[in-house]
Amino acid sequence: MTTEMQEIAITEEKPLLTGQAxxxxxxxxxxxxxxxxxxxxxxxxxxxxxxxxxxxxxxTRRPAILTMHDVGLDGKSCFSPLFKFEEMQEIVKNFxxxxxxxxxxxxxxxxxxxxxxxxxxxxxxxxxxxVLQFFNFRTVIGVGVGAGAYILSKFALANPDSVEGLVxxxxxxxxxxxxxxxxxxxxxxxxxxxxxxxxxxxxxxxxSSNTDLVQSHRxxxxxxxxxxxxxxxxxxxxxxxxxxxxxxxxxxxxxxxxLVVGDxxxxxxxxxxxxxxMDPTTTSFLKMADAGGLxxxxxxxxxxxxxxxxxxxxxxxxxxxxxxxxxxxxxxxSSSYSMDGSRSRSRTLSQGSQGGQMPPSPSQTMExxx
Length: 370
Prior knowledge:
- The chain is of the alpha/beta class.
- α4 (about 120-135) crosses α5 (about 145-160) and α7 runs antiparallel to α9 (about 210-220).
- It has 14 helices and eleven strands.
- The relative contact order is 0.12.
- β1 (about 40-45) and β2 (about 50-55) form a beta hairpin.
- About 40% of the residues lie in helices and about 15% in strands.
- The chain has a nine-stranded mixed sheet, sandwiched between helices.
- The chain has helices at about 20-35, 75-85, 90, 120-135, 145-160, 180-190, 195-200, 205-210, 210-220, 225-240, 270-275, 295-300, 300-315, 325; strands at about 40-45, 50-55, 65-70, 95-100, 140-145, 165-170, 255-260, 285-290, 335-340, 350, 365-370.
- The chain is globular and about 50 Å long.
């Protein structure tokens, strides 16, 4: 679907005939379906073609929300439950949403030939500027999971003026060590590709319980027509280089960052290590209880709330927009959040009491368990 989205406006100057009314309803329904499914584009970049899905209108007055999925997923399976969540619509209606699929990872993609050289993680990050140029967006707010979080991190480090904020879920900024490399080699011999990727996506508790979510992803990966492409992306991620993030050097993010991880996620330790390397004045760390390996799928309510305050702290949502959220807060949340400051580069997500305790000094990165 490559046609441009158009806003359908109908002016009724005289009563419509029955047939005309039916046609009007059909046109409005078609427009709503288009908005829900998004526009699909195949965008040429200097390093190959990217499949991209855009939701909403191309308003460039605000940054686009740009997502990048994890291995074994695509933009739809990784992010739809989060961005279709009811409370998230307050954000979605005001921003353009752009889902990027890594090369060959979109559902139904044709398998790459045996001679195809899959791009490195660095190269995929270098493909993103072409997407911004195609849609005429100057800046974005990046939301990435796992491999996608790594790619967006590379993009933000190389293009700091193009990124206004980052939400990094299950980030691992380090290259694989020898022990990890050996364990991966052994796993590739004893386990199927689907099981290897599932152990990357889900906690051991989720795998042992064989939840419906785990089983659905197991079936989807095992039956994927582009399984060879998924394997190539998996190998590329495992060959990633160390990002060498250091808060005291130039190799650090120049924008606000929210790190997110489940308390039982496979990459909990990696996220904690990443947090230790970050600038505490611009970094918030959200550790989510009972979230498993993919909190955007299992705990969309909690993540939506945190994301809204993150956006508010960047100056894109007035505090009045948060009133309904505060009143309808999920009872399972054990923390409340506040985010201070105007649209500057120095702010933190802080934890307070339910009574509205004053936030601590912004010189500390706060870990928020919810």
